[in-house]
């Protein structure tokens, strides 16, 4: 069990709402649907009402710094069956890629990046709460920007500050873009997964745990549980 999963959840009961396509860019076709993940008619592009408002606020902040740029949503809501599918898919892909590594070492790597597909309502995977999103940036020409690594890459390159001390020009640009992404999301009170530059959440257990670490306030609870 991860430390953040010990945080209590007091679900506020907000509904899931669609992420508007005229405001945000949505990755199309959806990356996990493309792989055959079992959505059973459920849209991955929904979020809790206040989380969507926060995302809008973050995009407004982005446009103060970079007029015309937009947030691109790679993934949002994920049923637990999809979480299970993606954990299994990632495990199998890594086993094929690294045949000399033990299965337990690979499972350990997968668990650094993918949450357990837990069915326990006290420990929901973040994306099954409607409060977590995986995002990147698009410029004013509609080009998806390079932030120095692919979303879902199982590697230290995915750590948000991987390029912090880089001296190369491109690497410094990746770092600046990652910092901009973090800045706009933090300005709307989101928090970032410590190992994934693209993953942010607002109001779930990981968010509450990160806030409690910042403030040493152990009374912070999560207000979004599994939907
Ligand atoms: C790996 C990535 N897509 C992701 O969403 N990771 C978090 C931790 C999750 O599985 O909830
Ligand atoms: Zn994520």
TrEMBL record:
What does the record's cofactor remark say about binding?
A: Binds 1 zinc ion per subunit.
SUPFAM superfamilies reported for this sequence: Hedgehog/DD-peptidase
Q: Which GO terms describe its molecular function?
A: D-Ala-D-Ala dipeptidase activity; metallopeptidase activity; zinc ion binding
Q: What is its EC number?
A: 3.4.13.22
Q: Which InterPro entries match?
A: A_A_dipeptidase, Zn_M74/Hedgehog-like
List the Pfam families hit by this protein, alphabetically.
Peptidase_M15
Which interval of the chain is the signal sequence? none
Q: Which reaction equations make up its catalytic activity?
A: D-alanyl-D-alanine + H2O = 2 D-alanine
One GO biological-process annotation of the entry reads:
cell wall organization
User: Which UniProt keywords are present, listed alphabetically?
Assistant: Cell wall biogenesis/degradation, Dipeptidase, Hydrolase, Metal-binding, Metalloprotease, Protease, Zinc
Q: Which cofactor does it need?
A: Zn(2+)
- Annotated binding of Zn(2+), by residue: 127, 134, 199
Q: Which domain of life is it from?
A: Bacteria
Sites annotated Transition state stabilizer: 78
User: Broadest EC class?
Assistant: hydrolase
Q: Where is the active site?
A: 196 (proton donor/acceptor)
Q: Which family does it belong to?
A: Belongs to the peptidase M15D family.
Q: According to its UniProt entry, what is the function of this protein?
A: Catalyzes hydrolysis of the D-alanyl-D-alanine dipeptide.
Q: What is this protein called?
A: D-alanyl-D-alanine dipeptidase
Q: What species is given as this protein's source?
A: Euhalothece natronophila Z-M001
């Amino acid at each position: 069990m991860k430390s953040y999963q010990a945080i209590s959840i007091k679900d506020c009961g907000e509904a899931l709402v669609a992420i508007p396509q005229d405001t945000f860019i949505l990755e199309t076709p959806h990356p996990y649907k493309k792989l055959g993940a079992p959505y059973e008619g459920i849209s991955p592009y929904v979020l809790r009402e206040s989380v969507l408002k926060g995302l809008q606020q973050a995009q407004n902040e982005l446009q103060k710094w970079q007029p015309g740029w937009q947030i691109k949503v790679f993934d949002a809501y994920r049923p637990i069956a999809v979480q299970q599918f993606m954990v299994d898919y990632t495990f199998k892909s890594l086993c094929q890629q690294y045949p000399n590594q033990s299965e337990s070492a690979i499972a350990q790597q997968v668990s650094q990046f993918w949450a357990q597909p837990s069915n326990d309502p006290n420990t929901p995977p973040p994306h099954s709460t409607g409060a977590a999103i995986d995002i990147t940036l698009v410029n004013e020409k509609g080009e998806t920007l390079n932030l120095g690594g692919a979303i879902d890459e199982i590697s230290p390159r995915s750590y948000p500050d991987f390029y912090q001390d880089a001296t190369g020009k491109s690497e410094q640009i990746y770092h600046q873009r990652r910092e901009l992404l973090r800045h706009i999301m933090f300005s709307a009170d989101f928090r970032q997964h410590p190992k994934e530059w693209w993953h942010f959440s607002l109001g779930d257990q990981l968010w509450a745990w990160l806030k409690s670490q910042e403030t040493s306030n152990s009374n912070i609870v999560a207000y979004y549980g599994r939907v």
